[in-house]
Amino acid sequence: MRVDSPSHHYRTPTYIQGKTGVVVAICGRYRNPESLGHGGDGMPEQLLYRVSFAQNSVWDRYRGPSGDKILVDIYEHWLDPVGV
Amino acid sequence: MPKPHDMGGEPNDEPIDQSDHQKMDWEMRADALHQVLGQKGIRRTDEMRRSMESLDPDLYRSLSYYERWTAALELLMVEKGYLTSDEIDRKVTQLDQGAN
Q1: Residues 43-62 of A with CB under 8 A from B
Q2: For residue B5, which residues of chain A lie inside 8 Å, CB to CB?
Q3: Is residue B26 over pLDDT 90?
Q4: What pLDDT digit, counting tens, does each position of B46-82 carry?
Q5: Whole-prediction pTM
Q6: Could you give the CA distance from residue B48 to residue B65 in angstroms, rounded to a whole number?
Q7: Closest partner residue to A37 among B6, B9, B50, by Cβ?
Q8: Would you state the CATH architecture of domain A14-78?
């Protein structure tokens, strides 16, 4: 996950930025809320992915079962590939 | 620097108040106005979010849910040129004086 706090509207919570997850679904293509929020037309449409993160990799003091996941819908331009 | 709505994971030892409450008349009117403006293509959900996120952080935290909606709608209506702050303030003064 990219880490950024642009001055414009964005839909990527700070708590998930910089974390590493696994894409589990492609939700579709949608107009970009970062443009729509400022009167733009939202084009080009952006791919929206559902990404799974281990809860204990997101929260330092997570006390639940180690297999717990958190699923977050994230637009493609916020994702960086993990080194292959 | 995260904006005030981006509060997931902020340290807070206070229990979350999960009690439900009856909506007040003005809250339902705020909701209705918000929906009508959306149906008429005057405001979008993403614009509402952006407007709400632009509120001063201390103000944002002091406002209730529908107070935030109302503040965000006011900002958008002024920004888009449908109303001026003066017009809104004059109307509020009138209502305060019972001359509606």
Answers
A1: 59
A2: none
A3: yes
A4: 999 999 999 999 999 999 999 999 999 999 999 999 9
A5: 0.86
A6: 13
A7: B50
A8: Roll (2.30)
Distance between CA A41 and CA A34 in Å, rounded? 10
Interface of B with A in 32-71 (CB under 8 A): 44, 46-47, 49-50, 53
Question: Across chain B, what does the average pLDDT equal?
Answer: 92
Are residues B37 and B73 in contact, defined by beta-carbon separation less than 8 angstroms?
Answer: yes
For A26-70, the pLDDT digits (tens) are 999 999 999 999 999 999 999 999 999 999 999 998 999 999 999
Chain B residue with the nearest C-alpha to that of A13: B6
Across the interface, whether the CB atoms of B47 and A39 are under 8 A apart is answered yes
**Mean pLDDT across A61-84:** 93
CB contacts, 8 Å: B1 with chain A:
5
What sign has the CA pseudo-torsion A9, A13, A17, A19?
negative
From residue B11, alpha-carbon distances to A15, A20, B7, B15 in Å are 12, 22, 9, 12
